[in-house]
Amino acid sequence: MRASVPARALWVQARAEADERWREVLRLAAHRGVEIVEAGKTEMDALAQDGAHQGLVLVLPEFAYADLLDLQAGSLLVALDSITDSRNLGAIARSAYAFGADGIFLGERRSARVTAGSWKASAGALAHLPVAQVTNLSRALKSLAADGWTILGLAADGATAVESLPATITEDRLVIVIGAEGAGLSRLVKEHCDWLVRIQMAEGAESLNAAVAAGIVLHAVHSARTAAKEAP
Q: According to the model, what pLDDT value does residue 220 have?
């Protein structure tokens, strides 16, 4: 509600113990003109598909995906290669928004969709960060590369540590590609990457959650860009 997530209705569990957070949610809903519906616990559990709702359920409209062309006005995009967990999508959106990305795009097939879990994991970031679907991810990356974008793929076997990227790279129009856990980047997507980078980890560590890895790389790029702007 604080992030002005688009909402159709707020369902509130009857006779549940209210606290200050509840009262703030109700105030925000009333201020925004969101319909408030009171219901019993059984009905609330069914609406939340037995998920943990803590007595409050926000009903959202169907997510409106953006067009990739709309995202290209910016300078930093995140591409998801076969990320199938919708909660990872939401968590990546949260980091992407926090570190200045202009949007996310992913393939229409074998990819997560924006779901209730995505909204919750994004902590409201999806209300401000556009997400686009593309028919073919590798073709979309090829098109962006032809338009002057630098494609940076995150891979466990990447030749360059993300901390060692040249400063000039982070100043380019940049696409950061995050692959699925385990499988990593697909072969065709790797072929369209200008750089394959890795995250330095302790010996014996195999991999990171995709959302955690995305956050680390986005922070590194954001820090490099901030340092470049502040340099005399």
A: 92
- Taking the CA atoms of 174, 193, 201 and 182 in sequence, report the sign of the dihedral they define: positive
Listed by start position, the domains of the chain span: 9-59, 68-230
For residues 33 and 154, the answer to whether their CB atoms sit within 8 Å is: no
Contact 122, 147 (CB under 8 A): no
**Close Cβ partners of 220 (under 8 Å, ≥ 6 residues apart):** 162, 163, 165
Distance CA 189, CA 185 (A): 6
What's CA 226's distance to the chain center, in Å? 21
pLDDT at 148: 95
Q: List all residues 6 or more positions away from 27 whose beta carbon is below 8 Å from its beta carbon.
A: none
Ranges of residues in the chain whose predicted pLDDT is under 70: none
Q: Give the global pTM.
A: 0.89
| Predicted pLDDT at 48 | 85
Among 230, 210, 209, 225, CA closest to 78? 210
Query: How far is Cα 77 from Cα 178, in angstroms, rounded to an integer?
Result: 11
The CATH number of 68-230 is which of 1.10.10.10, 1.20.970.10, 3.40.1280.10, 3.50.50.60?
A: 3.40.1280.10
Exposed (0-12), middle (13-18) or buried (19+): which is 114, by Cβ within 10 Å? buried
* Per-residue model confidence (pLDDT) at position 5: 86
Q: What is the pLDDT of residue 121?
A: 93
